[in-house]
Amino acid sequence: MQYWDPRIEEMPEEDLRKVQYKLLKSLVCRLYSFSPFYHDRMKELNVHPDNIRELSDIKKLPFMFKRDLRDSYPNRIFTAAQDELVRYHVSSGTTGKPTVVGYTQKDLEIWTSSLARGLTAIGLGRGDVIQVSYGYGLFTGGLGMHYGAERIGATVLPTSVGNTERQIELMQDLGVTAIACTPSYLLHMGEIAEKMGVHIKKDTCLKAGILGAEPWTESMRARIENWLGIKAFDIYGTSELSGPMFTECAEQNGFHIWSDIAYVEVIDPKTGEQLEPGEKGELTITMLQKEALPMIRYRIGDISSVEEDICPCGRTSPRIKRIQGRVDDMLIIRGINVFPSQVEYTLMSIPEVGQHFQIIVERSGALDDMLVRVELTKESFSDKITDLMHIRQNVEHRLRNALNVAINVELVEPGSLPRFEGKSKKVIDKRVL
Ligand code: DLL
Question: How far is the CA of 254 from the centre of ligand 1 (A)?
Fold first, then answer.
């Protein structure tokens, strides 16, 4: 077993909780004194740092929401002076005003060490060549992974996104062993590679993918692993937490949330009550050491649950399950709750279906209609109308059974749906356009 920082990664849980309490207490004292935002929020709830006497008192503290960051655009919520900042990242703002994240040197250090632990836990290190195909720039994926990969002594190939043919040539020529990108970009890369006559499985040294920044499912993981002959690891984070932060270990069984860096809660999104391990709810994270943009009980909107068991890898930090969707990406179709992840999970278990699909929701009259456009695999795409009808009926039947609502399916030619270099957009909800 390889650890990056065994002092923390193997620390007994009881000691980890003591470390967390100390960090929380000093964070709360600092913010109560120096952050007008947190001071006012705590006053509103009548909480004083003296009321935080043990770790579980965290539930007395106020929540923080994405809108709080937008409302204080660009930097009114920061608790570091401008001359202490060494970096900005800015979120894309596709769902509203962008949010700006500032970093002190210590913030970058903690972010980097979180990724160094994760990459080591995956099994990467010196001698590996890691191609970073997340976007470099305002998005956190590229630079975040870059620093983490350098820290473990791997060689970084900073390709960023785009120019896919060249990326594939370099992957072959430089013996790339791991790639970091969105799962949808890796799928796109696999297809372009095949068009170039390159089979990633047998013509490259690739053995691992560090895939995240967008939702994907266990059945997509199985497809990627079989097709490309690699191990596909999930990586999670958001720009407000710093960027990509938490990865799975070699067990591929949930994200390790390093206890000295973050405190994780899963709450009921309606009541705000903490849920028990195993119960699904809204992920809420407190960053215990962040300086420039502190985060106490930040409600991310992603749905997950805390794993109940200790990881067989021996790391003692809590783990959370793969992200199951977002509190706000649930589609309500004729009164039935539908998550895009359920659609992907079902489709990927049907062998005739390719890797790409698109969900289109429309209102016809008073009713909602959901159409799923599904690419077939090259092998199953045939001109025989009867075959296609049979496949379509099967896909509709499987979706209806899984989702409890009738869904129209349109089968489309392989390669005909849009491909994405960064985050993919799988749902078009015309009701809200
Ligand atoms: O996507 C940071 C990141 C970069 C994570 C590279 C992983 C790898 P944002 O652009 O702020 O930051 O988007 C954060 O993306 O709240 C989730 O909804 C979604 N997301 C990120 N990783 C995953 C994942 C980066 N592994 C938002 N599974 C989050 C599902 C994910 N959703």
Answer: 15
